[in-house]
Each structure stands twice: as structure tokens, then as C-alpha cells.
């Protein structure tokens, strides 16, 4: 999931366009379908075992939300598609999980694809494709696997919290998408936290190779998130401007709200991106500073002891006639000279602020 | 306040849209409401204890400015909202303090959100969200806490300075926003001063690690200011182009003036941003120069004394037959040779401009 | 092929505009023409030896695809051009293989040029120009040499798989172009794999010069791919918006699908481009880290042994009176002192995390 | 003048909008007003002592140019403003010298602000704000101090050179602005010369710290010039498109000419900007090269003499039995070995091109 | 020529606008005029000595191309301008050779300026300004000196090759401009070749200072070419969209062809620009790698011989009691120890891949 999406496309090269091929990794997942059917007065919640059961739901007088998990069940999805009269390319897009967020406006339904982002147990960012079909009184959602960010939506439908039960399907689509976008903020925070950790690390002088790799990985993660989030703004924009009975004028203000949130997320992402560049700068500077420190130690040691060793070498020479060798105190005088030299050096390096 | 805004959003993930939740840190602030009611002839200034008192103010024949401090008092704000017939999403935005500057045009009022920036006691840049509601003859302002940049506005209303008492509510909104934008210049100056200090520091050879961190922090501060200021230009632009009785044609020139100021602030911010990049360049160069200096000291010391030590080593050898050892003056001749070598080296390094 | 295209233009400088000159390297290729003529009921597939045979094909009641390999056969192509009434500049563009992707809308045909990308045996990316002429019931394709990415298309026409036999020539053009774009994904994957290899290499400390060169080469390859792919988006866009009987409204959705794929490929390319920048960063950092390591070894060795050597030098001096020399255990004491110094140094470097 | 403009804004924070406050440094300048009144037949030139004298000039049948120096004389300017019926915000902008170039189109006059750039005695770039009011038969100009770039204009009016005396006030405005823009080229040249000097310096190995600072200063100067020049293009553009009797169709071609010049200046600025980046690159590279050189000297010295010293050390050992010590020629043989080693080393370094 | 253009503008600062001043360096060039007068049936080619001869050419029933070399002959050009009724600003632009490519649409003629680029004998890129006047049945061209890229055009007119003799003056302008643009490809190739040479140089480890300078020079050359080529696209675009009898609809396709070529040249320029950045990267890396190599040699030499020297120093001490000194084989044992140490070190460095 948290991997570059293109890989998956491979399975399809050379296939006829419009052929439905699941391009994800979760081929063994069980099909799981849940249905909510509600209006102001009542709310029925069902777990279904196969798509045929869906066809028995009466779609008039109520709003129906059908949530299908398990994109590997291609034939089931195809049946569903036929029932709701979906275009073959739409069905192909639903099961091909490397779509970028987009909206396709069809005559009697809207098709929206977006990326749901959430943290898994190990705090890795997981990206999962969710497709929405918005009809006059139903919303279909398609997900790869069961975990999702819609629990608060379920809660609200069940207990009639807020406006949801009094509104049309376009409002249902809105709260579903809002739930997805709200979770982007959680992800943004995770990234912010990681950046802070890196910063503390680098500032405290940690210049291990792995940190470089980790920073680059984070940079890439941000790149991927941008890819998931930036086109979504255009999608929301087009929903807002969509002219048909599917989207009622009074819900458009709500979509505007999602749009504002997306702008906020995008801006934060871009700020984090700049921060990462700064991190790399700090890291490079940190390495250079470290090198400077190493060089100073070497220079100080060498500068102090090489001249002293030279002096010792002088009086280790075996010339027949070296007058100093025979004075009584010359050994101690020499020590004195050496200590003076040593202290002079120390003083010099201190003045240069190397010590 | 001076922290990344997203953090605060967290509280709201999973909440129903349109639910009013205060997302700031100042939950214990007391509610403080002040009201100005004025026309050409008179000006009444009141401090109110609760929102109900507002409802008694007669809104005809005068311009009323109601300034509410304490966004944590959500229920009070809700009452106010109902009285002035504000949309639920507007109320949600007022108390959710991580909004980016924006304008929402409603049928009988304008809703404007912007960021007030000022320096606190420690010269840190503080950002506080201010929301404005512009009605036909009133302006409502909502702030998190009491301190603000509106004192000059109060003064002008009280004493009827300038045009304010002879103009409509759109002019009041203008002078309030103008006060906010005028303070951006003060902030810009603070940043300019900081950059100058960094520059002097780096140029005088200070390459401490902390300076790197500080520069990165400043860079981030500028990023945040951009986020507060850049969208505001669009807001002003839309006020200028707004077609309704709320904004009179003759006040539009004044909004144009704010727009010009914002362009100036933005340009300065971008210049400072480039300067920061230059600072980083200078810093990196400074480190490299320092390393160069260290290396030169090492090289000079080593290059001078290693050969001399070698010579001393030669005559410290214990061969039975080393003719030079037995000449009378060879010790002094050797000293001479060594001094010549030493001076030659010094000369060489001087010519290379290393000394 | 995988070389910068401009080189080939050279042959033409100074030639009259509109003169057909083959600008590629494959001048000795044999002419190879294949023709598919099909409708819902039947499909005839022929291999032709010269262009005259084409003129005998009855173009009514069926869709005809004529695929010509061997752009060096300029006169044959000219004959074909005359038969199908093609503009001289179109013919010039077909044989001049350094075209960038473009579309020319003529009265009764569309002329599309694009770049076919595929991996050769050595996994190098090969770029070959393919030109398409879309007429009311025929498609002409022109390629430099025989290998191409159209095998799946041939298969589908032969066996009537999918929709192709029931649709018009605009659908044929679509599946041909789709085949080309689908192969872009394979190329994208190759690039992704290469980047991964580089990353592993650099991370494991390989900083050989050649890797720098290879990365730069890959960067250039991506630049070239961008040049092949980015203008194609505009081409598809114009096909979608093309208003004539050549492109039927119902096939436009399919072209939209290609467009989406192109956006995906473009985004991936841009991500890879950023990754390459990161790679270069990692590489530079890797070199600096390596240098740091080298310096540490030097500093440790020098800092430990230079002072010890100095001490040994002291007691190698030949002064008449050095009291320590005559104490019985002084040699062993000195060893002790030296070992203590040695261990102290080790401890110091360990505390500095240099060991 | 050559300082960042924002600083001056400070004086105004908190003041009522529309209040005229001079924001420059030249508060003690004397007021100096000159007036040219001319038509095809005659030209009167006057020096005025106060603004009242202006009001006596008969504005019909001739073109009048009034040039006022001394923006600190706010009350005089206000009088002038009233006489010519100028908007309060216009007067505020005239004396507030931190305006960015702009045009305000009023009913019966045009207001243009731009930056005049010229070199002072020390070759520093000085920026001074000039405001223009274009009326039907007059042009007013407002400058901070006396020096300006309009001498050629004066000359042309006095002696009736060129078209000026036969044209309307819009042509006068044109030649005044043209004089300003022409001087931009001189400034551009100064910058080009500075860059050349830096380049020669760096190339000849000068890597003093001050050069880094100077380059950064130049970069900033270019940033400031961009700010003065780029918005001016939009100003000229709007003059060209202005639809009123103030700008006659036949003078528009002349404004187009200024526009072309501005594009040229802008492009040159951008090229110089890129050159400065290159300079920084060259500077960094220069430092690295210098370090390389230092390291080579150290490495050569150490690599040659450390092994030789080791050999000398060997035969300085006091073992009872070292056979070589007692051979007659061993001392000379050793010298031979050492010289061979020395030459071998030299050869090795030469082959590595370090010498 | 290959120098920054602004320099030449200097001569004109302070001159009245519209005054014709030649701004180039070739003031001593002789005037050279050639005229081609042709229609389908005939072609007359003349060399003229003065502009007066031009006025005798009958301009009806044929297309006339007058090519004037020697922009320093300002008065002659002025005469010509009067004869063809050209605007003074056009004449000024013709002789002012620092124009950027542009088109001026006048009532009965088009004025086009562009830059002709070609390699001189030393393979330097030379840029020369060429101005075109397109009238209903004539084209005037103005060049600084005699050499140009129009020989193929002359050939085609003389021998009636291609379409030229059957077409109008707009086609003549097209083939002239096409000749200029075709030469851009040659220049592009020269640049490509230079980059390849630099690459080989750097890769083979050449890090001389001069290469840095040369790369920066090339970068600048590309910047200048961009300036010559990018605005030309806009010029061609406007010719294509020009609505008058001067440009016939059927020639517009040909201009479109030039446009495509310009896009290709521009793209190649941008790719080369990126390549130059890569070159700089490679150069920097190369320097760092070289430094690494130097450091390794130093570290290896020092790390091996400093400890050995220390050991030798130990046994050079003069303590009365050093037991090892008196063992018979200790000298040889010591050699053994040293050799083991030496080999151990070698092994260590080999394992670190430093050898």
C-alpha cells in the first residue's frame, strides 16, 4: 500500500481497455458488504453475503448506502455495476487501484475516486483507494479491505446525529468524503512529528547514514500524499460546480468546506516539504561541522606534538660535539622550554576558539 | 500560537460537520464583549457582560461595532449567531482557529477571517485569528483573547477623528482590516532585523550549530506568515469586486489601498525568503572557509616540522660510521641547514598566501 | 534511438521546406506493409509487398488499418500520401523522425505523431516515432522498423475480442494509442527499478564515480521521456475536443481514459525526477560521510601515537644528566604511563562516538 | 535610499488612512519648484518659490510641466493637490515614498508612481520615487530631492528638439518616463561590470570572506531592482490600454517602445540573477579546490617524510645486536635507499597529477 | 556579437526617442544591397550601389526581395524607410541591434526582428540581428554585415526550386525565417557537443579551474540563446493569427511548421540547461571524490608509519635498564612485529576498500 502505485499497473499492459482486472495485492480477501437504508424516521443496517441481496433493497423513499469491501471479487462488482447501470470504464477504474483522485460525471450518477490515508499499527502511512458512486438516492462505496475511516459516519446514521438523516444522498457523500479528508489531518500530524524527531536528532549531532535515508523516505511519502490530495481539490471543485439534481445547491456550501480543508492540508504538506529541504540542509551542515571538529582535534594534536618531537629529536642526535648535552641543567631547561611552547600553543588555539 | 496550526485540528476529527468546537488553547479565558454604537452626532461605548445585552442595542440610525473576546465561550457565540442569523458553518469557522484567511459572501452579510500578527513581550511573532461579520449597519469581530491592534480604531471612533463617523459599516471594516495589515509591517521589520543580526554573526565567523537552527526557524516563520498573508490578497480582491449594498463604490478605493499594502508585505516576505537562502549559503561557505583555515594550520605545522624531524632522526642513528657526526662544527652547520629549510618553508607558504 | 533527437535534424538544414527526407539511421530496412480490413462479420489480414496493392483495397463497408514499416522508403510513402490526399508537410513530418508529439487537424483526416517507448534486449529505453492518419474508415500507421507494441491490437482484431470489430476507425486509433501509452508504464517501472538499485548502492556506501555518471544519465533519460509524454496530453486533449465526424462522441470517454493514464505517467515521471535529485543528495552526503570516516581514522591514529612518540623521543635524548634514565624501573613505569595515555585517548574518542 | 523600503513605513502604523505623512529621510530639504509652459511657438521656464505661483499659470493653449522637489513640504503639496483636485489617497501615496510602481486611473487625470534609479558618486545604486500626474494639458512630477534624470527632457523642451513641442501632455509624460527607463540600462551595466569584477576575482583564486558578502549584497540589489522594474511593465501596459482623451492613440506606439525596453531590462536582470548564482557556485568550487590544494601539500609532505623518519628511527634503536649498524657502508647505503624512496614517491605523486 | 547586448544601448541614453542611432560595432562596413525581383516566369538578380536604385524597381507583377547589409549607413536606411513609408520607431529599431525578437503589425506592412545565430570560424556562437519588412509584394531584410544563412534561399529563387516562385511575398518571408530557424539546430548541436566534451573531461577526473569557468560560460550562452529564441515563438504565433491580406491562409500552415521547430529548439535548450546543472553537480562531486582520494593516501601513510615510528622510538630510548635491548634476536623479532603490524594495517585498509 505505502508503495509506489505504478507497479500494479503492470498486470494490465496489453489487456483490452475496459476489461476489469483487480490490480492490488489483497486477492484473498473475503467479500464483505454492508448496507444502510435510512430516512428521517428509520434506519436499517444490514450485512450482506452477496450482491444479489442488494437488488432486493427498495431504493425509493429512503437513502441507501452500500459499502463493498474486497475489490478482488471482480465478478460480483460487475453484477453490481450492471444493476446500477454503470459504464464499463467506471467498473475498470473501481478495481484498478492505481487511479489518481478524479470525478467522472455521468448522466444519472457521479463517479468519484479518492485515496483514503490512515496510519497502520506501526504508524506507517497506508493509502487505500475508495470509489464512490452517487445516485439520486443511493451512495455506493468500494474499498479494498475492511478497515476504514467511516465509523463516525455509521454512528451518525445509526443514531440520527446531526443533519444526515434529514438530507439527501449528496449530503451522505459529503460526510463520507469529509471523514476521509479529516483523516488527512491526522496523517499530516504524523509527518509533522517525524520531522520534529529528525530535527532533534540532527541538532543533537546524530549524523548516521540511516537518518539521511529516512529523511529521503519521508520526502517521498510527502510526494505521494501530494499526489493523493492535490487532484482531490479539483474533484471537489467540480462537485461544487456540478449542475444536476444529484448535488443540491444547499449542500454545496458543505463541499466548499471540504475544499477549504484540502487547501489547508495542501499548504501544510508544502510547508513540510520545505522543512524537509531544510532538514537536509541542516544534515549537510551537521556533517561539515562534525568534520571541522575532527580536523581541529587532529590539527591541535599534531601542531603541539610535532614541534616538540622535533626538539627531542635534536638532542637525540649523536654528534660528537653538542655543547648543550653536557650542561648540568639543560635537560630541565629543555622541559621548561617545551612546557612554555605547549602552553603557548594551547593559548593560540584557545584564542582561535578551537578549544 | 506561533506553532503550526494543524495540531489544533485534531480535536475535531470524527466530529459531525457544522459542530462548533473551539480548537485553541485558551479555554479558560473570560468572555469580554465591547460595543461601539455611533453616527455623525454621537458615540456610545459599552462593556457588556453577556451576549443578551447585545440584542437590546438598536441597530438602526447608527453603526454598531461589537467586539467579542473569548472564542471558548461557544454557546454564547452560538446565541449571537442565531440573533444575527449566521450560517452554522460560519459559526464553526469562527471558533475553529486554524482557518486560513478567507471570505464567504452570504446574502445579507460578509464573513471574513484573517490572521492578526503582532510581537509579544519576548519579540516572538504571535498569530491570532480574527473573524469579521459585516452587516448593513454593524460589524462583529471575534477574537481569541483580549490584546489586539485595534486601539487606534477605538480612538478614532471615540473622538470622531478622520472620516470614520461619517461613513458606513464597510468603512469601519476597512479601518479594522487596515489596522491589522499595518501591523504586518511591524512584523516584517522584526524579521528584517533578525536577518541582519544573523548576517553580522555569520560574517564575523560565528558558525555555531545553534545559528543554523535559528535560521531554519526563521525560515519556517516566514513560511507561516506567507500562509497568513497571501490568501488575504484574494480576500481583499473579492471585497473590491463584491457587488451588493454592503460595500459602497466609494470605499472600494480604500480596499484597493489595503491590497497595495499587502502586495508590498508579500514582496518583502519573498525578498526575506531569498535572503535566508543567501544566509544559509553564507553559513555553508563560512564553515568551509573555517575548515580551510584549520587545514592550513595543520599543513604548515606538519610540512615544516616533519622534514626537520627526519633530519634529526638521521643523526640519531647508531651506525658505527657516520662521518658527519665527528666533524667539529657539524652540529651548528645542521642547525643552519634546518633554519634555512624553516625559512624557505615559511617563504613558500607566504607566497601561497597561507600565512 | 536512445540518443538526443536533434542530431538527426542536421541532414535537413538548408533543404526546401516540404521536402521529404528520412532523418533516421535505419536506411537499409526493408519495406514491410501489413493491412487489416474488418467489420463485424469478417477480418482480412494481408502482408503487402508494395504500396500499389493498398490502392486495391475497397475502403467502404469496413475499417482498414494499414501499418507501414520502413520510413526510409520515402517514394513509396509519397505515393501512399498522394493516394490518401495527404498534405506535403504531413508527409515530411512522417519521415522526419525528430518530431515532438503533435496533432494536425486536416479537413478529412487527423494526423497524430507520438513516441513509442519500449525496452530493448539490454533493457535500454528505445524511442521510436509512430505517425497515425485517421480517416473516416481507415487508420494508417507509419513506423521506422518492425518491432512494435501493437501485437495485442492485432490479436483483438483477428479474434474480434472486445468491442473493436463493432466500432469505427476512431476506436481503432484509440486502442492503438492505448497500446502505446500502456507501454509507458512498463518503462516507468524500469526507471523505478533502476532508481531502487542506485539507492541500495549508495546507501551501502558505494560512491564510485561511475554511479554519479549513471544517475546523471538516468536523469537525462527522464528528461527525454517527459519530452515524449508531456505534449501527448495536449494531443489527446485536442482529440477529445475535436468536432467532426472522425471522432464519435461515444469514443471520447475512451480518449479521456488515455488522458488519465498519461497524467499518471507524467506524475510518476516527476516523482522519479525528484527522487533522482534526492539520490544526488544522498550521494553527496555519502561522499562527505566517507570523508568524515577517513578523517576520523587519521585523527585517531595521529592523536594517539604522536604524543607517545614524543615521550619516547624525550628519553632518546643524549643529555649527560637525565635522572629518570638511571632509575631501575623507569622503563616499565614509562610503559605504564604510555598505556594509560593510550587508554585515555581511546576512551576520549569513544565518548566522542568516533569509534 | 539604497535600503529596504519597508523600514520607512513604520512611521505610519496606527495613523488614520489618507493622512499625508512624508516617510523619507530628507526632511530638511528646501522646496524647489520649476515650471515649463510651452507650445509649438514658445517656451517659458520659471523657478517658483511657492505653490501659489503655480495657480497663476494659465493652463489653456499650452502644455505645462510642473516639477516639485521636496516631498517633506507636505502642506504645500496638499495645496497643490486641492488646486488640481487630486484624491486624498493620491496625495498620501505621493509623499509616502515606499510605494511600488503603480498607476491609478482617475476621471480627469492619471496618477503614476515609479522608481528612478541612478548611480551616486560612489557608484552605489540610488532609488528615488517619482510620482506623475497627467492631466489634459499638464504634467506634475514630484520628487524627493533635486538630482534627477530629466536634464535631456528639459533640453528638448527648451530648444524644441524632436517632436515634444508639437505634441500633447501624454507625449511629455512619455519622454519623462522614457528618460527614467533609459537610465535603468546604465544601472544594468553597472551591475554587469560588478559581476565581471567578481568573476575575475574568484577565478584568480580570491576566496576572501568579504567577496561572499559582496556577492550576496549584489544579489539583494538585483532583487530590489526587480521590485522597482517588474511592476512598471504592468503600469505601461495599462497606459497603452487606457481609453480616454488623456492618452492619444498615436502616442501609444511610443509607450509600446518603453514596454519593449522594460522587457529588455527585466530579461537582463534575470540573466544577471542567474549569473550571481553561478558566481556563488564558482566561489564554493573555488574554496573546495583551494582545500584540495592544501590537502595535497600536506599529504605529499607527510607521505614522503613519515616513512623516511621511520627508517631513521629504526637505526636509532639501541639494541645490542643490529648487524647493519656495523657494516662500513651501511650509512651511505641507507641514504641511497632513502633517496630512491623519495624519488619513487615524487614519481607516484606526479603520476597522480598532484604535483 | 557573442557579448551581452545591453552594453550597446549605452550610446543612446539621453537621446530623443525615435532618433536613429546604430548601436553595433561594425561602423566601417561598406553598404551592400542586393535585390531579387521574380515571378513564375522570370528572376532578376541585381547588386545595387545605393538605395536610390531600389526606387526604380517596378514593384507590381512580381515579388521583390531587397537585402541590405550595413546598418551603420543610417541615412541610406532612412531614405529607404521614407520610400516604403516606414514608421520612425521601426527605423530606429532596425539600426538598434539590441532588440529582442518582436513583431510590429502596421497598416500596410509587418515588421519582424529576430536574431540570426551561426558559428564563426572558431566555433563561437555569433548572434546577428536581422529585421524583415513584409509588404504586399516585397520583403526587405536588414543585416549588420554580409555573411548570412540565406544562401539556400537565393539558390531556390534563382533556379525556381520548390514553390517559392509561384507564391507571394508571405512565402518568401517564411523561407527566409525558416532558414534562420534551421540554423538554430546547428547551434544546438554545437552546444550538445560542448557538453559532451565537458562530461568526458569531468568524468575522466579533470577538475581544473578553467573547466568550471567554461561551464559557466556555456550556461550563459544558453541563457542568451533562450533570449533570442523564446520570444520568437510569440512572433510566429502572431504571424499565424495575423488577419490581413499580407499573410495568406494557405501559408499559415508553413508558419505553424516553423513554430513546431522553435518548440523543438526551445525544448532542447532547456534540456541542455538541465544538463549543465548536472555537469556542475558532477564537477562538485568530482572535486569531493578527489579530496577523498587525497585524504585516503594521507591517512594510509600516516596510520601505517606513525605507530611503527613510535615503536622504533621506544627502543631508541636511553634508559639504563631496558631488558629487550639485550636479547640477541630482539632486533629481528621487532622487525617481525613491525611487518605483521604493517600487513595488518594493509589488510584493514583493503577491507575498508581504501586501497
Uncertain spans of chain A, ≥5 residues at pLDDT below 50?
1-11
CATH architecture of the largest domain in chain A: 2-Layer Sandwich
The overall strand count of chain A is 7
The averaged pLDDT of chain A comes out at: 87
Structural class, from secondary structure content of chain A? Answer: alpha+beta
Assembly classification? homopentamer
The CATH superfamily of the largest domain in chain A bears the name CorA soluble domain-like
Rounded radius of gyration of chain A (Å): 34 Å
Shape of chain A: rod-shaped
Strand and helix layout:
Five copies of one chain form a homopentamer.
Chain A: H1 6-9, E1 32-38, E2 43-48, H2 52-55, E3 63-69, H3 74-83, H4 88-95, E4 102-105, E5 110-119, E6 125-134, E7 138-143, H5 151-159, H6 169-203, H7 209-241, H8 249-314, H9 330-351
Parallel strand pairs in A: 3-7
Antiparallel strand pairs in A: 1-2, 1-3, 4-5, 5-6, 6-7
Helix pairs in contact in A: 6-7, 6-8, 7-8, 8-9
Protein name (chains A, B, C, D, E): Magnesium transport protein CorA
Function (chains A, B, C, D, E): Mediates influx of magnesium ions.
Main location (chains A, B, C, D, E): membrane
Amino acid at each position: 500500500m505505502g508503495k509506489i502505485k505504478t507497479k500494479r499497473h503492470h498486470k494490465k499492459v496489453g489487456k483490452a481497455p475496459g476489461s476489469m482486472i483487480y490490480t492490488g495485492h489483497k486477492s484473498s480477501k473475503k467479500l464483505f458488504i454492508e448496507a444502510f437504508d435510512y430516512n428521517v424516521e428509520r434506519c436499517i443496517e444490514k450485512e450482506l453475503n452477496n450482491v444479489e441481496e442488494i437488488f432486493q433493497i427498495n431504493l425509493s423513499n429512503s437513502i441507501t448506502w452500500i459499502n463493498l469491501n474486497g475489490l478482488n471479487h471482480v465478478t460480483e462488482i460487475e453484477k453490481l455495476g450492471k444493476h446500477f447501470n454503470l459504464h464499463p470504464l467506471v467498473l475498470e477504474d473501481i478495481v484498478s487501484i492505481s487511479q489518481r483522485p478524479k470525478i467522472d460525471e455521468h448522466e444519472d450518477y457521479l463517479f468519484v475516486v479518492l485515496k483514503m490515508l490512515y496510519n497502520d499499527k506501526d504508524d506507517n502511512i497506508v493509502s487505500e483507494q475508495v470509489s464512490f458512486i452517487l445516485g439520486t438516492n443511493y451512495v455506493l462505496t468500494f474499498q479494498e479491505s475492511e478497515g476504514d475511516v467511516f465509523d463516525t459516519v455509521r454512528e451518525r446514521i445509526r443514531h440520527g446525529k446531526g443533519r444526515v438523516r434529514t438530507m439527501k444522498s449528496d449530503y451522505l457523500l459529503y460526510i463520507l468524503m469529509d471523514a476521509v479528508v479529516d483523516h488527512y489531518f491526522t496523517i499530516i500530524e504524523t509527518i509533522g512529528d517525524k520531522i520534529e524527531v529528525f530535527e532533534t536528532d540532527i541538532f543533537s549531532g546524530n549524523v548516521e547514514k540511516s537518518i539521511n535515508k529516512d529523511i529521503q523516505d519521508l520526502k517521498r511519502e510527502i510526494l505521494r500524499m501530494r499526489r493523493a490530495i492535490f487532484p482531490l481539490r479539483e474533484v471537489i471543485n467540480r462537485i461544487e460546480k456540478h449542475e444536476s439534481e444529484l448535488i443540491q445547491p444547499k449542500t454545496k456550501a458543505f463541499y466548499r468546506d471540504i475544499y477549504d480543508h484540502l487547501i489547508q492540508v495542501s499548504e501544510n504538506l508544502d510547508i513540510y516539504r520545505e522543512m524537509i529541504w531544510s532538514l537536509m540542509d541542516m544534515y549537510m551542515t551537521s556533517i561539515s561541522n562534525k568534520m571541522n571538529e575532527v580536523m581541529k582535534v587532529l590539527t591541535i594534536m599534531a601542531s603541539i606534538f610535532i614541534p616538540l618531537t622535533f626538539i627531542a629529536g635534536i638532542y637525540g642526535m649523536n654528534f660528537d660535539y653538542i655543547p648543550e648535552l653536557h650542561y648540568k641543567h639543560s635537560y630541565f631547561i629543555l622541559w621548561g622550554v617545551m612546557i612554555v611552547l605547549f602552553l603557548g600553543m594551547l593559548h593560540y588555539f584557545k584564542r582561535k576558539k578551537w578549544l
